[in-house]
Amino acid sequence: xxxxxxxxxxxxxxxxxxxxxxxxxxxxxxxxxxxxxxxxxxxxxxxxxxxxxxxxxxxxxxxxxxxxxxxxxxxxxxxxxxxxxxxxxxxxxxxxxxxxxxxxxxxxxxxxxxxxxxxxxxxxxxxxxxxxxxxxxxxxxxxxxxxxxxxxxxxxxxxxxxxxxxxxxxxxxxxxxxxxxxxxxxxxxxxxxxxxxxxxxxxxxxxxxxxxxxxxxxxxxxxxxxxxxxxxxxxxxxxxxxxxxxxxxxxxxxx
Amino acid sequence: xxxxxxxxxxxxxxxxxxxxxxxxxxxxxxxxxxxxxxxxxxxxxxxxxxxxxxxxxxxxxxxxxxxxxxxxxxxxxxxxxxxxxxxxxxxxxxxxxxxxxxxxxxxxxxxxxxxxxxxxxxxxxxxxxxxxxxxxxxxxxxxxxxxxxxxxxxxxxxxxxxxxxxxxxxxxxxxxxxxxxxxxxxxxxxxxxxxxxxxxxxxxxxxxxxxxxxxxxxxxxxxxxxxxxxxxxxxxxxxxxxxxxxxxxxxxxxx
Lengths: 255, 255
What we know:
The structure is a homodimer.
Chain A: E1 6-10, H1 18-28, E2 32-38, E3 55-63, E4 66-71, H2 75-86, E5 93-100, H3 107-110, H4 112-122, E6 127-133, H5 145-158, E7 164-171, E8 178-181, E9 187-190, E10 193-197, E11 200-203, E12 206-209, H6 218-223, E13 226-233, H7 242-253
Parallel strand pairs in A: 1-2, 1-5, 2-4, 5-6, 6-7, 8-13
Antiparallel strand pairs in A: 3-4, 7-13, 9-12, 10-11
Helix pairs in contact in A: 2-4
């Protein structure tokens, strides 16, 4: 009998969030599952880690083919801990989410959901981040199950190129119009600091899509009822600029 | 008389770190300076932000051409707050650091120093992150002053392309051999979780350079006594994969 694949799950909404529970049940259909997730919300944790405080974990569930750990660290800490402390074999796949809130365009940089997937990717574990464009803690995830299962089966069968992960976003709709592979759209968060006291501020703001008409972007897909799948790469070097900068800055600095 | 450029400074080691104080003094030679930096260490804060807690700030210094704010948030919060609350005009440049510890290769993903620069870049403010490969809290930064000033002058004069920042790293040496424009090297952190109790871990580990002989990488430059300058881009889409994935996954998901 072929060994069932081992699937590692984390998120940034915490181990008790509905999204990770739905994802866990789905993944149990496909393999053995280990969940290592934060003990509470870590939204917008990005790739942050905990260099100062010790990290504590508690085993909260253990049954055939499933182990669930609750962790005091960040999403990235959870993945490091799983790969470097808790797992006795290398996972075949890491999935992150399902995040409550989309992680499209520049939001990939703030996202703990994407951060966790990026950490797995750095360690050569194929990784997928799933996010739903919603502000609700309780949602109907059934419209997205089919795409999640198909994406995961594709990656389990084919793997992913080195240093690349998949970032999957869903619009909150009763039925998807379809799925689009697309690039990150250009956009930015605006008016993000609300003053709430003399020297006190609260994070707020709205997202401004800088190219709402570009059909090849993730936000276009979401705005039009499609799931978006974007391959994200680890290497952020702006390769196209290297030659120009070599001539200009390197020359300046070396004289 | 031409208006002096306005330069925004932040870091992830906190407002009291030596690196940001050295950088502040250097920038005062070139323009008016506003510092908005965390009230203590935020190493490895990445692009994390504070969606739950309010953010408090205190003005700790105000003199001609210089204002220094201490902030309870992350490096990214500091930049958002500066651009969206504290500044009455748009800065001409944002500089981050000088970080105590390098931020080369994959460490750019964990770095709060780079995170702060990325935030400025998202808001179209030209940004440079500076980091020194050291473990010391007190260092001699004089060997790097010339490259810092030259890089900053270059960017003040020429700007940077949209959605690109510069990531500058220095080796800890009495005298630089020179400066190299280079790509991020491939590498990864290893053995990162040390067990310190039954269910308690501490972050540790060492960096493994996966291409130590590649002369076009940042770590090669640092290992050989050169400053490294790497252009980093906001867009992390793996563009080269879009067509293949469109054929393969999009087909799967839409049937």
